[in-house]
Inverse folding.
């Protein structure tokens, strides 16, 4: 006889039930997206945002190097890496699929929103920006890396005990900060990415809850 899975939710419980204050979290994500969007369309860019960007971007090279591996979880490969780790546990495979779907959706949603807002990257506003990754050209709002990291953090949290979920949130946070350290985004770009990704992550879990009777 198989022993019960200690990480499985109670019978009839879905992935969204794992979040104790879902309405608050959704409201914060929506507010973050709306507020950051308002900031992103301002012309000129607010001076406080430029000053904050310079301060974060001025981080030592050693700090930037330490952040680089974490930053890769916000790349398009990130959802597949996390999804593969989840899929190693057979009962987590539906969650793994939701994680990959959320991350990929966040990546493309961020690209689409970039075209709508059409905000340039920091190099267009700060001549002394230290571009540690790429040319620094293109559109900045929202940060695709931040969106992907937030989306997969939200979905992956379901597989973590409550006392360890801060690790997923911290990882997503570090991805966003790293994008400013690397000179690729302004702070509002990052907040917009986090917020967009979180909303998509919750959406992926809602679909999983609708079509799966159990997550595990």
């Amino acid at each position: 006889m198989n022993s019960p899975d200690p990480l499985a939710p109670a019978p009839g419980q879905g992935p969204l039930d794992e979040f104790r204050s879902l309405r608050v979290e959704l409201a914060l994500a929506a507010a973050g997206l709306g507020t950051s969007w308002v900031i992103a369309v301002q012309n000129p860019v607010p001076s406080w945002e430029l000053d904050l960007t310079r301060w974060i971007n001025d981080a030592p090279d050693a700090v930037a190097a330490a952040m680089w591996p974490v930053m890769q979880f916000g790349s398009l490969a990130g959802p597949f890496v996390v999804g593969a780790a989840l899929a190693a546990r057979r009962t987590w495979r539906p969650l793994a699929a939701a994680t990959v779907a959320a991350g990929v959706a966040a990546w493309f949603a961020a690209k689409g929103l970039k075209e709508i807002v059409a905000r340039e990257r920091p190099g267009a506003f700060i001549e002394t920006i230290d571009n540690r990754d790429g040319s620094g050209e293109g559109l900045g709002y929202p940060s695709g890396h931040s969106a992907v990291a937030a989306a997969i953090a939200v979905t992956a949290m379901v597989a973590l005990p409550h006392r360890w979920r801060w690790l997923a949130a911290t990882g997503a946070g570090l991805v966003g900060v790293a994008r400013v350290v690397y000179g690729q985004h302004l702070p509002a770009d990052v907040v917009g990415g986090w917020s967009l990704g979180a909303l998509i992550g919750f959406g992926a879990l809602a679909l999983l809850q609708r079509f799966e009777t159990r997550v595990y």
